[in-house]
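2 proteins. here.
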Amino acid sequence: MQFLWGVRCLLAVLLLGTGQSEAVCGYESCPDTKANMINVHLVPHSHDDVGWLKTVDQYYYGAKNNIQHAGVQYILDSVVAELLKDSKRRFIQVETAFFFKWYQEQTEQVQRLVKKLVNEGRLEFTGGAWSMNDEAAVHYQSVIDQFSLGLKVLNDTFGACARPRIGWQIDPFGHSREMASIFAQMGYNGEFFARMDHVEKKQRLNDVAMEMIWQSSESLKDSDIFTGLLYRHYSAPPGFCFDILCSDEPIIDSKSYDNNVKSRVDDFINYVKTLSKSYRATHVMVPMGDDFQYEDAEINFKNMDKLIKYVNERQVEGSKVNVFYSTPSCYLYELHQMMQTWPNKTQDFFPYSSDSHSYWTGYFTSRPTQKRFERDGNHLLQTVKQLSAFAHLTNEKQTEDLDALRQVMGIMQHHDAITGTEKQAVARDYDRLLTDAIVDSQDNARDALRVLTNLTTGEFDSCLELNISVCAFTRDSANNVVVTLFNPLAHPSSQYVRVPVKKDNYLVTDEKGHEVPSEVVPVPWQVLAIQYRSNNTQHELVFKASVDKIANFYIRVMPAPKDAEMPTLTRFERLHSIKQKLSRARPDDRADADADEFVVQNSLVKLVFLSKTGRLKTVEMNGVSENIEQTFAIYKGARGDNGASERRSSGAYIFRPDGDVNILADKVDYTVYEGDQVKEVHQHFNQWISQVVRIYEGISRVEFEWLIGPIPIDDDTGREIVTRFKSDLSSNGVFYTDSNGREMIKRERNKREYFEPDMSESVSGNYYPVTARIALQDEQRRIALLNDRAQGGSSLEDGQLELMLHRRLLNDDAFGVGEALNEQQFGTGLIARGKVYLILNSVADKSTSVERLAQQEIHLPFWKFFSGSNTASAVKPQRIPDFSDFPQSVNLLTLEPYSSNELLMRVENFMDETEGHIVSFNIRHIFDTLGGKEIRETTLDGNMPLSDMKRFKFHHDGSMPKALEYFTSPFDPLHSYAWDDSSRFSVTLNPMQIRTFIIKWQ
C-alpha cells in the first residue's frame, strides 16, 4: 500500500509541473548514438501473456500468485511512474488487451500523463495487437482482425504517436511466412522474435546471419520485411536481471565495501562484445525484461540507470561500448540508416525445436475442440459484423456486444490460447469468455435480421451444438420452422444444410414457396451414445440451399407416405452389441451381395470400398482415379521423468511418439445409407473411433467426419490419434502445407531451407502446422486434404498424407504448463468430432483453384438462424449490396462497423500467382448501396492512410545500396466521394492482394 501511495503522490506532483512538451514521438525521439562504437540499445519490456498458467483476469489483477507471481496492473502503474522520473527512460508495451483495460481504470490526470509519455516516444507500443498471437494455428482473417482492433484502440486513444512500427513476436513457438506478410501489408518496418530451431540458431550465430530480409510472399512483390532473432531469448543478459522476480546482484556503487561496479561493468562489456560478433551492424539490441517483470519498476530502472552510467564512463578509458535506453523501432531505424546488406529468407521457421528431442509440433493439434470453437467464434464474428454493417447497428449496447466478441477473439489468438498450451482451468475460462461473447453478439444478429427481413419478430436463434446434431430449437419439433441462412462470402453459394430433427416426413420450401428437395438421414449411433447428449433428435434433415447473402427456407412436417421407411438406430438399439446394431441397417441394392467391393457414387464422385474390411479402396473424381486407403493410427506418447531432453514426455507443446505408429488394420463395421442427395458410409473402427464418409450430389469432394474419444488411458499410456491417406502417388518426399490459410509452402521430408536439421525425432520433426490445407502430387495427380480447424500434419512416406486429430497425454513435457494434456468432460476423456475433406484432381494449369474455392466455403459456410413461423417469405432490402459481380477469385474478407458513421471493407484476391491473375472490378454500386459519402484506402489494418505508408526497405546481399529506400504504395490509393465519377471506384487486385477501405456513410 505504501508503494501505491507513493506512486499516486509522485504522479500528482509531476502533473503540477507538466507543461506543454516540445518533445516529439517517432524517430525524432530516438536516443543519440555514437560513431565508431558498439551502440547498445537497451529495451525495457515485460512479456505479459493474455492467459497461460492463470486466467486473463488473474494475470491482470495479480490473483493466484501461488501459481505464478504476476500482476499486470501493478506493472503498468509502476512503469508509468518510473518513466516520468527521467526523460531518457524508455519502455515498450505490447499487448493492447491488458493496456486498454488498465488505461480505462485511470484518472484523467494519469491518462494525460500517459499521453505525454506516448507523445514523447518514452512509452512506445510495439506489436500493438490485442494479444501476441500464435503463428501456427491461427487463420489470417483472425490475425488481421485482432491487429485491426488493437491498433484502432491505440489510434483512437493517442493518435499517430501510438502507431507501432515493429512486430514483436518474441514468444510464439515458431514463425509463419504469412505473419511476416501481414506485418509488411500493415506498413511495419520489421519484426523480431526469440525462438528458432536450435540447430538453425547455432548456424546463424556462426554465419553472422541472425538478421535477414524475409521475402514473405511469392505472389506479393513488395513483401520483403526485415526480420531479426534476439540473441538470448527475450531475457536480460545473464546476471543482469534486476527485477524482483530475479536474484541477480544489484549494482552497488559509492564507497560500499560491497562495491561491484567494476565487475558488473566488465561482465556487461564482455557480454556485448561476444553478442556483437554474431551481428553485422555496430548497433545491437539487448532486451531487459521477461515474463511479467517490472512490477516494482523502480528497482529495474534504478539499476539500469547505473549500468548505463558506469558502462559509458569506461569510454574515457578507451571502451567502444555505448549503452542507452532505446526501443526496437529506434534500433531498426539505425540499421536502416547504415545501408548494409542482409541475407535472404524465403520460407518459414517451422517446426521449432528447442533441443534434439523436443519438436514443438504437438501444439498444432492440442485441445482440438477449443481450436474448433475458436473457428466457430470467428465464423459468427464475420456474420455479425456484416449484418451490423448492412443494418447500420450503432447504438451503445450493439457496439459493446460486437466489441466484446472482437476482444475475446483477439484473446483467443494468443500464443497460449489457440495453441492449447494453457492450464486446464485457463482453457475453461477461455471457453467461458468466448461463450458469453457469442451469446451476447447473437442479439446483434437478431436485431439486424429483424431489419433486413420481414420476420420482424423472428427468434433467429443459433444452435451451437450442431457438431453433435443437436439444436434446441428443433428438439421437440421442426414443424413450421424457418431456417435463415447467411452467406459471409462475397459470391452466391450452394451448400448442403443439415438440421437435427425427429424422424418425420418433411417438406422444405424456399422464399417463393418452391419445394426444395430434401431427405432425412440417421445420426450415427456413436454420436447418439455421447454422454449427456439430448437424444430427442436422432436424424438430420438434409437439403441443398442456394444463397446470395440472406435466404429463408421453410420446414413443415407432412403426412408420411406409406412406403416411407428410413433406416434408423434407436436408443434401445444402442444398448446392444455393435453387430446387432449394424444388422438393422438397410441391405444394399447390389446384384451380388457377396462381392469383394461395393460402390458409393454420385454424378461427380465414385468411391469403392472393400466389402470384407469396410475400408476405402479407390476414389474417382475430376476425371482421375486413384487407389486411396484411409485409416486411423495411434502414436503412443513418450513418457519420461523430464529430467533430461532425451527422456522428455510428449505433452501440450511437443509431439514425441514412443515407438512405431499402430495402424488400425482390423475389419471395420459399417453401414451404408444412400439417398438422392447424400450418400454416407458409417464406419466403426473401435469403441472410441468412428467416422462417416460422405459425398453430396453436385459437390466434387469427399467428406470424412470423424469422432474420437474418450481416448483410453487404462494402461497409463497417452495416445495421439492420426488419420492417414495412402495413395500410389510418387511424391518424392515433397508435400505442401498452407501458411495461416493463405499461400502454400513446399515442404521436403527431413530438409530445411537454411540448415541440416537434427532429425533425432524424425516423425515429429517432419510435422507442420496445417491451418486449412495439406497436399501432395506427382506429375499427373494431386491429392489435397482440407480441414475444419488447425492441426498438425505431414507426409512421412511418398504418396501418404497424415493429420493429427486428437491427443490425450498423461505426462507434462516440462516446458512450463505443469500439467499433462489430459482433457476430460463429464468425468471421462474428451470426445472430439470434426471433418476432413479430400479432393483428387489432375495436375493441370490452375487446378488448385478448386481447392481455394472449397477452402472458402469450409472456413465460412452458411450461418444458420432458426425462427418459428408459418411462412418463409422475405424481403431483400436495398441496403444489402450485390457482391456477385466480383471476379471469382475475389472475396469479401471483412465488412464491419468502424465507427458510428463509418464501415471498414476489405476485399482480397485469394488466388496465388500460379492459380489466378490480376483482376479489376468496380465497387461504386456497393458504395452507393451502403449509403457511402466518402471512401478512403488504408493499410491492411485499417488505421493508417495508405498514402502515408512509408516503410523501410533493406538491401539483399550482393546489392550495392547507394541511398536510403522505402516501400510506399505502388499505386494511387483510392479516395473518392459520392459525387465523383464511377471510374474513380475501380479496384485492381493482384494475386494474394488485400485492399482495405473506410466508407463514411453519413
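next one coming up
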Amino acid sequence: MTTQLTDTPTPQRADDQESRKMPQTPVIANLLPRVLAAVCLALAVLAGTASLTGVIEGFSWFPYLLIPVFAIHLLSAFIRTVHVIRWLALPAALLAAIVAVANHDTMTANTYGFSATQWFFSALSEAGIQLATQVPPVASSIYVDFAVLVLALCVSLIVELLATFRRTALLSIIVLSFAPIVASLFKQEGAGIGYLALLLIGILGFVALIPHIFTTTPGHHHGRTIAEPKTLGIFSITVLACVGSLVAASAWMPGFRTGMFPEGQRPSGDLLANNVDPLINLGRDLRSNGSDPFLTYYTTADQAPYLRTQVIRNLTGERWEPSEGLFHSDYYGDVAVNNNFSTFSSTEEVLQMTWPKGNRNPLLPLPDRSYLVNGIVGDWTWTHETSTARLSGDALSATNDVSVAYSQLNVTPQVVEYLNQLVEGQDTFIADDYTQLPQDPDNTLQSLLDETLQEAYKQGSTPSSDLEKAVALQDFFRSGNFVYSERTPLREGYDGANAEVVKAFLARRQGYCVHFASAMALLAREAGIPSRIAVGYAPGVATGESITVDSSEAASALTNSLETGTELKGYTVSGQQAHAWPELYLDGIGWVPFEPTPGRGYTPTYAPEPTRAVTEQESTAPEVPTARSTPSSSESPSETPQATAGTQSSDDSTAIWLAPLIILLVIAGLCIAPWRRHQARQKRLEVIRAGNQESAQALWNELLSVGMDASVPCGVHESVGDYLVRLADDHPRLTEELRVLQRAIELSFYASRHIQEQEAPGLLNALHEVQNQLRGELPIGRRILSFLFPKSVNSAPGDRRKVQQSTGK
C-alpha cells in the first residue's frame, strides 16, 4: 500500500508534465515565413498602387508610400510572431498609418486653425474634387498625393485584418486588386503589365506561405518553416505560367496595355470631367463626334456668341493650364459682376441658357464681356482677371436656367486705332504671364517664331500697329497655308498644347483649333502683343426656333426687362462646338478675341477676313484623314447582287454551288492586292541585294510603300531626310535603323556613293525592322486591312521621288 502510495504519483506527474509540454506554443513562432509574407504583401500593395501612375501625373507621390507600407506589414509580422502580444499587431499597424498621415505635407500645411480631424476630411474632400473634375492624368498636388497615401494605407490595413485569420486570408486578393482595376479604367495606356506581374508575384508568394504562417506546433511539417525545394520549384513554374498568361491576355483583353476608356474619357460621375489641361479635353470632345446637344440658349444678338469656360495665360510651362489662385469674388445667387472692360461702341445683349438633361459642368459657359448673371441657385465664384465663373457643387445641382447680360463688341479697325491713339503713352499694367515666352535653350522656337512672323507679314514688311500685326497673323492662318484636321496626328505628344506642340504644328501646318490658337498666342507675344488662350465653345448651331419676351413663360428677370416683343433666337451646343481661340490685349480696348482657325466661328468686326477661307480640299498643304471620311465608290450598290437574288428565287439548287463559288471569288479577289504588293517588294529586294546604282532608288521606294501601308505616308513635299527624321521622332525605337537607311539613300542620291553588295544585308535588316515595328503598332483590325488592301499597290513612289529632286529637297 505504501509502495502504491509512493510509486503511483510519480508516473502521474510525468504524464502531467508531458501533457503540459505537448500543446505548449513557443514564445516566438514562424518568424521567417511571416516576414516573407509581409514582404510579399507590401510588394503587392506597392505594385498595385504604382499602377496608378498615369491616372495621377508623375511619380513623385510614390516614394512617400514605401516606408509606411513596409512599416505596417513588417511591424504586424514581427508582433504576430510573439504569441503573448500578437493581438497588438493591428493596433500597431493602425498607429503606423496614423503617424504616416500626420507627417504628410498636407497635414502639416494646416494653417487655418482647423482640428486635425477636420483638416483630414477637408483635404480628402479637396482631393476628391480634383479627381472628379479632371480627365486623367490628374495633376499631382499635395491633396491628390495625400489621397493616394491614404488609399495605400487603407489597403494595407484591410489586408492585414484579413490576413489575421486563415479563413479570410485569401480575401485580401480582392482588396489588392482595387488599384489596378481603377488604373485599367482610367489610364489611357492601361494598368501596365509590369505592375500587374509584380502584384501577381506578391499575391502568389503570400498564398504559398499561408500554410506556414498559421503553423504553431513545433515539429509540424517535419520542423520546416518554409516550403520544400520541390514545392518551391512547382510554385515557381506556376508563377511564370500566371505571368505569361497575363502578358498573353494583354494582347486582347482591354485594360492591360490600353485602358478601358479612350483618351480623355472616364466613367461618368456627378461632375463633368474638366481636365486641368482643358486643351486635351477639348481634343477629345472634337474627336468624339458627339452631336447630342447638352446646352440650349436663346439670345437677342444677331450673331451667336462664343462661350468661354476657361482662360490660359501662362504659356511657359510643360503643361498649359488655367492659373490657380487668381483673385476672385464669392457670390450667392444673382449678382452683377465687375465690368472691367470698355463698353465703347458695343451693344447690350441678353442670353438665356438651359441644360435639357441637367448641368454637370461646374464651369459656367459665358459670353465675353458678361456683366450680369441671373438664375444661379447657390454659391459660385467669379474670377475677375479672366472673367470666368465656377459653380459650387450645390449650385451645380440646383441651377438649370441662367440668363446673362453681356456687351457685344462692334467696332471697326478705324475705331480701334483711334482708341489706341487716345491712350498712347499711358502706362498699362499687364501681368508678366501674358507676355512671357516658353524657355528655349536651343533657340529653335525663337527662330521658328521669327521666320513665321516674317512670312505672315508678307515679305518682311512689319505692320505699324498691334491690330495690324494681329490681323496679319489671323489672315495668315486662315489663308490656306494650314490645314484644319481634328486627327492630325493622333500620337502622344501632339495633343493638347505646349511649346513642343506649337513647333510641330508650325512645321507640319496641320492641326485643329487648339494648335491654331496656341500658335497665334505665341506669335503675338513674339510680336510684342500680350496674349492668352480662351477655351470653351464656338457659336452654337441655330435651331430655327425663337422666343419672345411677352410669350415665353420661362422668361427670366433679365428677359422680362427687355421691351415687349423682343425676339431671342435659339441655338444648341454640343461637343462638336468645343473650341479654343486666342485673345490679344489692345491698348484702349482691352482683351479682344481673334479667330485663326479656318472654317470655325467667324472673324470679329475689327479684324474682318479679306478673302474667303480656303477649304481643306482646296488647300495645297498635305491632306490628312479626318473624322468624317467620304465613302468610296466601291461601297455603292451594284446590280449584280439583285440579279443573283432573282436567280436564287427561281432555282434554289443554284445556291448550293453559287455560294461557295462567290466565297472563292471573294477570297481570290482579296489575294490580288497582297500578291501584287509581295511581287513588287521581292523585285525591289533583289535590286537592293545586287548592290548597284538602282539599289538606293529601290530601297527608297520600298520605304515609301512600307510607310504608306502603315498609315504614316511621306508628305508631298517631304525629302528623304524630312520623312525619315519624322519617323524617328514618332518611333524612337527605330532611330538607329532609320539613320542607317537615310545615310545610304542620301549618299547614293546626292553623292553618287551607291550601295554595295556587302552593305545590302544590313540595310535589308534595318528595312525589315522598320516594317515590323510600324505594322506592330497598328491595331489588329487596321493591320489586317493594310495587308488585304495595301495602299502602296496603286501608288507611284518613283514619281514622288522625282518631285522631291526637282524641288531641291
